[in-house]
Amino acid sequence: MGDPEQHQEEALAAGSLGTERRGRANVFLVGLMGAGKTSVGKMLAKRLGKTFHDSDHVIEARTGVKIPVICEIEGESGFRARESSIIDELTALDNIVLATGGGAILSQANREALRSRGTVVYLRAGVDELWNRTRHDRNRPLLQTADPRARLALLHEQRDPLYHEVAHIVLDTGTQSLKSLVVRLEASLARRAAQTEQQPS
Q1: Which of 28, 31, 63, 193 is deepest in the core (most CB within 10 A)?
Q2: DSSP notation for 4-40
Q3: pTM reported for the whole predicted model
Q4: 24-190 — its CATH code?
C-alpha cells in the first residue's frame, strides 16, 4: 500500500515538475556537514535530469589533495578563497544541482551568488543527528578537536541563521529514507516553481 502522503507528493512532483525539467533552473543545497547534501544532490539530479556537482569534490579534484590537507597548508582562509572561486564558477552554470560545503554560506558573496542564481535548499538536521553521521569521519577538519560534538553544536548555532537567510526552501531531513527525502524535495521545488510562475512579471 505504501504511505498515502508519499504517494501524493510523488504525484505532485511528477505532475508539476515539467517546467522545472524543461527549464534551466539550478538547485543549490546548503547545510552543515552530515546533512546529506551530496547523497540528496546526486539522486535529485538524476531524477530531474540535471548535472550534479559537489564544490568540495571539485576543489579536491583540481588541487589533487583532500580538504584537510588544503586547510593544513593554506589555512581555512586559503581554503575559503578557493571555495568562493569554485562556487562563483559553478553557480554560473545552467541546469545543475550543486552540493556546497558546510561553510560556504559564511561568505556574503557566496550567499548572494547562490540566492540569485538558483533555488537554495537548506537541508536542516539536529545536532544529535549530524553528530551520529559525522562522528567517525576523519575527513572533517573542523571536527578534529578535543570535543568535536561541542564544536559541531557551536557551528550549528553560528550557521543556522545564515542557512535560513539564504534558503528559498528549508527541508528537515529527519530519519526518513533518502528516496523519501528526495521525493519531498521534488514536491517542494514543484510548489515553488508553480508559485513563481503565477507571480506577475
Answers
A1: 28
A2: HHHHHHHHHHHHH-HHHHHS---EEEE-STTS-HHHH
A3: 0.83
A4: 3.40.50.300
